[in-house]
Design brief:
The chain is an alpha+beta fold and about 280 residues long. About 25% of the residues lie in helices and about 45% in strands. It contains 6 helices and 15 strands. It has a 7-stranded antiparallel β-sheet with strand order 5-6-7-8-9-12-13. Strands 2-1-4-3 form a 4-stranded mixed β-sheet. It has a two-stranded antiparallel sheet with strand order 10-11. The longest helix is centred in the N-terminal third of the chain and has 21 residues, at about 1-20. It is elongated, with a radius of gyration of 31 Å. Mean pLDDT is about 80; it is low at about 1-20 and about 255-280.
Length: about 280
């Protein structure tokens, strides 16, 4: 008797599942709540189910889960729920509830210019310390835009700014980013002698200046694929006195041979060429 009842209940469950899957549910609309900053169109962009669409219940729940994952992947929310609100057996509303995260993220910069703390501790020179601040503003204007600013002072001065827009067009497929930075340093290492660094400082200004700028474009036709392009420019300049000093030290140290090998300095003309090649990457 028990076995007959088990088979009967199993058959009934399978029949109900088949019936529910065969019922086509039409999405009448999307209701969004909890987005105090984020614009509705940014949230709707990540949904794989649209208003007016019709599908079976199983397919609907799969699309709702995928939509929830897409919204979490934006990094804009702490939590997301995407659930159906049935109006009757064949129509439903989609309820999207989000909990927004904090979009201002500052970070302090404190860095020693020397290779390690022990080297810096020998002089305890506070002028050989870098300090400053990073500031990130995510979801700028509520459109998932990102603004980044960096200001660093002390031994090395560095300033940078970047602005990223994920969607420029109405179809929300094309985006862009633009950034620029400036790097300045008064004291640089010209080489080593007897396992000690040879430092050259310009008391009147900078010994090395680096300007960088770039612009990028992104294309996101679907939720799963994103294409990006980037064009950058970097210009590095080194003071003439640095190159002259490096060549002078090279000539002097070239006369000292140890074991048939010359332990000298690499000319700054070579170093400048290397900087110009490496920095853009």
């Amino acid at each position: 008797m028990f076995i007959c009842m088990l088979f009967s209940s199993t058959a009934l469950f399978a029949q109900e599942t088949a019936v529910s899957d065969s019922v086509v549910i039409q999405v009448m609309g999307v209701a969004i709540s909890g987005n105090k900053v984020t614009r509705d169109r940014i949230i709707l962009r990540e949904l794989v189910v649209k208003e007016g669409e019709a599908c079976g219940s199983t397919a609907l729940y799969e699309k709702l889960e995928r939509s929830r994952q897409n919204l979490m992947n934006t990094g804009l929310f702490n939590s997301v729920t995407v659930l159906p609100l049935y109006l009757n057996k064949t129509t439903a509303m989609i309820e999207v509830t989000v909990n927004e995260r904090w979009y201002w993220w500052p970070a302090l910069v404190f860095d020693l210019a020397d290779p390690n703390f022990n080297t810096w501790w020998l002089t305890k020179d506070l002028s050989r310390v870098n300090y400053g601040v990073y500031l990130y503003k995510y979801n700028f204007r509520g459109q998932n835009e990102t603004v980044y600013v960096n200001a660093q002072f002390g031994y090395t001065q560095q300033y940078a700014i970047r602005y990223k827009v994920p969607y420029l067009d109405k179809q929300q497929k094309w985006g862009m980013s633009v950034g620029a930075s400036f790097y300045q340093q008064a004291e640089i290492t010209a080489g080593t002698l007897d396992n000690k660094r040879i430092l050259i400082r310009n008391p009147d200004g900078s010994n090395r200046d680096v300007w960088s700028a770039d612009i990028g474009a992104t294309l996101r036709k679907t939720h799963d694929f994103r294409h990006s392009w980037r064009l950058g420019f970097t210009q590095a300049e080194v003071a003439d006195t640095v190159e002259a000093h490096g060549q002078h030290m090279q000539q002097e140290s070239a006369h000292e041979l140890i074991g048939g090998e010359c332990h000298g300095l690499v000319p700054w003309s070579v170093r400048v060429a290397l900087v110009a090649v490496v920095l853009p990457f």
